[in-house]
Amino acid sequence: MRVTLPKNLLAERIALLERVIPSRSSNPLLTYLGLAAEKDALVLFGSNGEVDLEVRLPAQLEGEGRYLIPSQPFFQLVRSLPGETVELSLGSELALASGRFTTRLALAPMEGYPELLFPDLEGGEGAFTQRAQFLAEELQRALSQVRYAASNEEYRAIFRGVQLEFSDRGFRAVASDGYRLALFDLERPQPFTRKAVVPARSVDELVRVLRSAEGEVVLALGPGTLGLAVRQEEGALRMAVRLMEGEFPDYERVIPKEFPLKAALDVEPFREALKRVSVLADKQNHRVDLFLEEGRVLLSAEGDYGKGQEEIFVSLEGAPMSLAYNARYLLEALAPLSGRAELGFSGPTSPTLVRPLEEGGYQAVVVPLRV
Amino acid sequence: MRVTLPKNLLAERIALLERVIPSRSSNPLLTYLGLAAEKDALVLFGSNGEVDLEVRLPAQLEGEGRYLIPSQPFFQLVRSLPGETVELSLGSELALASGRFTTRLALAPMEGYPELLFPDLEGGEGAFTQRAQFLAEELQRALSQVRYAASNEEYRAIFRGVQLEFSDRGFRAVASDGYRLALFDLERPQPFTRKAVVPARSVDELVRVLRSAEGEVVLALGPGTLGLAVRQEEGALRMAVRLMEGEFPDYERVIPKEFPLKAALDVEPFREALKRVSVLADKQNHRVDLFLEEGRVLLSAEGDYGKGQEEIFVSLEGAPMSLAYNARYLLEALAPLSGRAELGFSGPTSPTLVRPLEEGGYQAVVVPLRV
């Protein structure tokens, strides 16, 4: 098999594979990069056992085959090759030539390499029986805005994932660590009903792929697997990630519905004041106090270094209230927002709802600290 | 004592202090930032026991005093303060106000804080009896270009420093780890004769300060101490670093003087080819082979992954030669260079000299690998 393709295209498109393919693995074959010829495309593939990825690039091809090449020297070399094109000849070894540089790399046998299954962009049967279409940018926003709320703890493993909910009411991504929760609703009725939990680290890879994509993408579910297929400017990209077992406990009941006090505020100055005041907060619980009254929030904190406070003007609706938060949780809940936001306070010891004041699918729940 | 000054000036100028002041120390007072009022300047100072630093800023001042404030919250706050100016009131505590933000920080007592001594920019007596003037940019170049060759090993501790040599022939900075050597000569006759070894990590801080400076600077030596005084656009900066004991063994004898083969080459393409070929090199010794003959260098390497080679055109003067190098050492020796360079080969097992083809104070010596 012989392949000729532009160096820059190859260098640019292997970046996502470079992230996924591990430099060490209990299955050493996973440290290799797969190369195959299919129709007019060079197919590059890799896996870390949790995330499988396949990149298709237009290339001049002769012959066919499927080969495993050592990914580490290949990734290191591709970016700095001296020529404008790269020539790859694959047989008993890989011969690479670009400009006056040549190299010969040893191959690994394909036996023992896992079979990677991906959904088709165009439809068609296969392992992925449930399919839904999204706009890349919309799906990317839904996933990336809730991901922070997933847990890092071993305890209650299901919370280390992001739950995706498909139903005829729409699509929802939701994450929680038991102390706070974030969800994002897309009003896009789904052709099937299912809940699937994706490990948060795999969500990060899905988000990266979606950022590189444009227009419509396909999300597809098979047994124990979520697949994604996206078109790119030149070529296409497909991904499959292992699902976690189980689904989230009922979280709807922690989302407050009634608010004795609501605040509408500009996110940016509120966030900045919260950051400043939290510098003085106790290093253990990061406690910042909020006192809301007469069109103002007084933020204050006190710790080993001393104390600090700042006042911000807001629009209030309801009775004055004093609350305390872990500043980090409140800052993370505000992070996806810009412009104006609404904070709905259900009480000093019951959950607070954070959401954009105008339309937007994002909602976050933060539980105040017990004073 | 009360101080008012522009937030941005303060935020910008504490960056170097932020690097020096440790977040933990066996003497907890060193984690504090010093503030003092002198004439029309706010003086900020700090030390990590190895490097002392003092920054002088124009400010509106009332009263006087010397105070230690907790550096960690202060550094965190200063950049994000909401106002254009900062007001500091120092007494039994520090009260800081900027815009609608206020904070009160606990102070530490000055007792037990080391006395910091710095050379004067203008001359005058004191602990620093030997003084020399440099251009900031020249001195910065001399120090930063040789620093890489210093050792990281505990063994032969003196090689963990950079030796500064002052004499009527000029100024030299030299570093070596016993396997390679770099030196930089400034043709600037010095008013005194002395050799002083500065720890490589302190050289990094000197270089940072010199990068922030313009025009003439003063380097001064006292007992066991090297001082630096620089002017900045607004204000001034002074530094003192502890010297290492002892001086380098005689290194002049390892610098080759006769070359059966010399190569003149463009640094950039040679460096790029060396990087590419070294990707294939053995991971232990990073060996890259050079074969020089008839206006060409053939670079080649072979390791676990396979082998690679590339050819580069050069001007040669002398008999063909085959040599092998640790690619990292050769790349580091070339790093300070651009444009055209000369490689002087004294033999396949004896030192190679690397230097710019045109004028320049830099010279590096790299010992080939034994083939």
TrEMBL record, chains A, B:
Domain DNA polymerase III beta sliding clamp N-terminal: 1-116
Principal location: cytoplasm
Subcellular location as annotated: Cytoplasm
Gene3D superfamilies recorded: DNA Polymerase III, subunit A, domain 2 (3.10.150.10)
UniProt keywords, alphabetically: Cytoplasm, DNA replication, DNA-binding, DNA-directed DNA polymerase, Nucleotidyltransferase, Transferase
Sequence ranges assigned to domain DNA polymerase III beta sliding clamp central in this UniProt record: 137-250
InterPro entries cross-referenced by the UniProt entry: DNA_clamp_sf, DNA_polIII_beta, DNA_polIII_beta_C, DNA_polIII_beta_cen, DNA_polIII_beta_N
Similarity field: Belongs to the beta sliding clamp family.
Complex formation: Forms a ring-shaped head-to-tail homodimer around DNA.
Function as written in the Swiss-Prot or TrEMBL entry: Confers DNA tethering and processivity to DNA polymerases and other proteins. Acts as a clamp, forming a ring around DNA (a reaction catalyzed by the clamp-loading complex) which diffuses in an ATP-independent manner freely and bidirectionally along dsDNA. Initially characterized for its ability to contact the catalytic subunit of DNA polymerase III (Pol III), a complex, multichain enzyme responsible for most of the replicative synthesis in bacteria; Pol III exhibits 3'-5' exonuclease proofreading activity.
Name of the protein: Beta sliding clamp
Species per Swiss-Prot/TrEMBL record: Thermus aquaticus (strain ATCC BAA-2747 / Y51MC23)
